[in-house]
Design goal:
15 helices, globular
Length: 390
């Protein structure tokens, strides 16, 4: 067998066209400023100069990313998820490298990996889960990797990249992304492991690392569906599920230096149901999971504070939340009609409270559904024509 051929000269593929395409992708994804406080609009104001300077740095090995800006988003009721926000220039740089690396690794990824890949989606992942359940794989290992993005070893990422890529400059850029550090409360914190949630290149690096697990499961004959670090293994007996649990636990620990979150990892059945990618899935229904309903309610609560006035801007902001939720959860395979109807009633109640500054059943008569329609308020029920009534 011949020696494996690695990819050379990726640096030579960094062109002005690639730089512009990378910026356009960053602009589409929007996002906040990094520690340099330069917004996308500010970067775009002198776009040609900024992209030309950045391209020279990327190609001449002098590029050095800024530290990430620490930010937090809610995770559950009391927890917060840390994000690392790169500067706009660094997001463009990461997108350039991502576009160079992705075609190399895409052809190596398993068919049952769906996260952050072209022409693949959460809905396709859920359809695959339902397909496997209907084929008789009704015992489910619902696995959760403990703080996955925070704990991926840098050495493992670099080893996986070096197996396919021989361009030292590109490898050096990735390593600098990983080791750029974080600024939090005015203090610099070095990053010795993990890839930041918020980094443009992080999803690709996550897929590259977990691809080892995918093919390990394949080699042992297991059916699975993975979306980034969220995955389920589907088998036909409880004994097989227990073996799969031990195999996953051992492989993560010994090969990837990661561990399962045993509090969130469980063996369940298609009959009892399980949560996956925002849905609650069982043999009886596919609905919005409880946590996703609460996240939606929290968003609505922030927009419908009773002491504020009910005006056109409130309706516009609500409509964006409503349409986004309906676009995701109203599918050909989901049964969300009842949940949507109850949420619509609850939203109207919140708006009546804003209008009349109090809660009362009599407000239903003073402000009927047709009044909300005249104000152009969207309805979740109206936006789910494919949703089956359950």
């Amino acid at each position: 067998m011949g020696k494996k051929r690695k990819v050379h000269s990726l640096t030579g593929r960094i062109t002005p066209e690639l730089m512009h395409d990378a910026f356009k992708a960053v602009k589409r994804n929007r996002g906040a400023c990094g520690i340099d406080k330069v917004s996308i609009q500010m970067f775009e104001y002198q776009l040609e100069q900024n992209l030309t300077a950045l391209m020279k740095e990327l190609k001449s090995r002098v590029y050095q990313p800024y530290p990430l800006r620490r930010a937090y988003i809610p995770k559950g009721k009391k927890q917060r998820r840390p994000l690392g926000i790169p500067a706009v220039r660094d997001r463009v740089a990461q997108e350039v490298v991502r576009r160079l690396l992705e075609p190399i690794f895409e052809r190596m990824f398993h068919d049952d990996s769906y996260g952050f890949r072209n022409r693949r989606s959460c809905h396709q992942a859920i359809k695959r889960v339902l397909e496997l359940c209907q084929q008789g794989y009704k015992i489910v290992l619902d696995a959760d990797v403990k703080a996955f993005f925070d704990n991926i070893p840098h050495s493992l990422i670099m080893k996986a990249l070096a197996e396919e890529v021989a361009d030292g400059n590109i490898l050096g850029l990735v390593e600098r992304f990983l080791k750029s550090g974080v600024m939090e409360d005015g203090k610099f914190i070095p990053t010795t492991k993990g890839t930041p949630q918020g980094g443009v290149i992080s999803p690709l690096l996550a897929n590259i690392v977990l691809n080892y697990l995918d093919w390990h499961l394949e080699d042992h004959g297991y059916r699975f569906v993975r979306y980034a670090d969220d995955f389920v293994v589907l088998v036909q007996t409880k004994a097989e599920a227990e073996k799969a649990l031990e195999l996953v636990r051992y492989f993560l620990s010994t090969e990837l230096s990661l561990e399962l979150n045993l509090e969130k990892t469980q063996i369940t059945t298609y009959g009892k149901g399980f949560d996956f990618l925002g849905f609650s899935i069982s043999s009886r229904y596919v609905r919005i999971r409880t946590k996703s309903v609460e996240k939606f309610r929290d968003k609505v609560r922030k927009l419908t504070i009773r002491s504020h006035n009910l005006d056109r801007k409130v309706i516009e902001k609500l409509n964006r939340v409503i349409s986004g939720t309906a676009n995701y959860f109203a599918t050909s395979f989901s049964n969300c009609h009842h949940q949507f109807r109850e949420l619509d009633k609850w939203i109207r109640m919140r708006l009546r409270c804003m209008k009349f500054k109090s809660i009362s059943r009599t407000h239903n008569l003073r402000m009927r559904v047709k009044h909300f329609r005249r104000r152009s308020l969207l309805s979740l029920v109206d936006l789910c024509p494919l949703s089956k009534s359950v």
